[in-house]
TrEMBL record:
Keywords: Hydrolase, Lyase
Gene Ontology, cellular component aspect: cytoplasm
An example molecular function term from Gene Ontology annotations: carboxy-lyase activity
Cited InterPro entries: ACMSD (IPR032465), Amidohydro-rel (IPR006680), Metal_Hydrolase (IPR032466)
Gene3D superfamilies for this protein: Metal-dependent hydrolases
Designated name of the protein: Putative metal-dependent hydrolase of the TIM-barrel fold protein
Annotated source species: Robinsoniella peoriensis
Amino acid sequence: MRTRIIDFHTHLGDIFHENKNISFKAPQHLPKYKDPFKELGEGGYRAPLIADDPDALNTLIDAGQFRIWEKGSLQSVREEIERNRMDYMVSLPVLPNTSFEETLAASKLEPKILPFTSPDFSLPVKEMQEKLREDIRMGARGLKLHPILQNVKLTDKRTYAAVEVFGDLKLPVTAHCGVNDYYKPGSPYQNIAPKEYGALHYMLALIERYPQYILIPAHAGGECGKEYLELADAVRKHKWKHVYTDTSFKGTEVIKELVELIGEDKILFGTDYPFGEAESSIALCKEAFSGKEDAADKVFYRNAAALLGIMA
């Protein structure tokens, strides 16, 4: 039987400040480059994504930008959906670099794309909230926050205002978690925001403020290795019922451990496409649920379908 798949964590277009307006252009073909994302996927994500070595980090940053230029277009997204037989891909824009409008337009051309939106923090709060309400009326399925790329902490009053629009409607809110750089030394964008804005404690504070909202710390809390344990400890300590997370950049053993710690009902399959490797991510998740077809269907499909209002 075919595995039903909703990838809950993907991106269309160039989410970085090097924005090349690529969403509706033909994919770029770049010279061969060192690709730690591919290597990590093929290695089963047994090592953390973020390394301490500066040279390794710079290589990862370059590869992230190159992968966007190669794989971030609508054409590439469609090919990814077809190649991996996905039912849906949740597409997460990050203003000011990618917008709800381009994600919505892509979803009209490819109905398997499910658009989220992102707050425009350049607007006054009331205008930002009204824009988000209009996005919901137009079809936004949830909210994406990226505290580093947007330079707004998850504990900022503007973040609270955006989150409340979605939380009050029982719509999901997902936020980047992870202390990592996106630009190399010398880039004019390097100091947009401190990388520490991605620290898990900000997300935990947001959850504590809104324990009844559907909140999703991405990457199981971070990309340095053990953040998922801190996340699970907090979820169990506070008995939070509305906290989910995704499996992006996580290997078989961590996925199994996450299920033991916070439950199979709270895990969402995700790749962080175009950075994560879908083929390896699917294989690793299938391995984690070998012999457990019902649990696998929850993580690959039903948990996300319930949050998104899709018939399971």
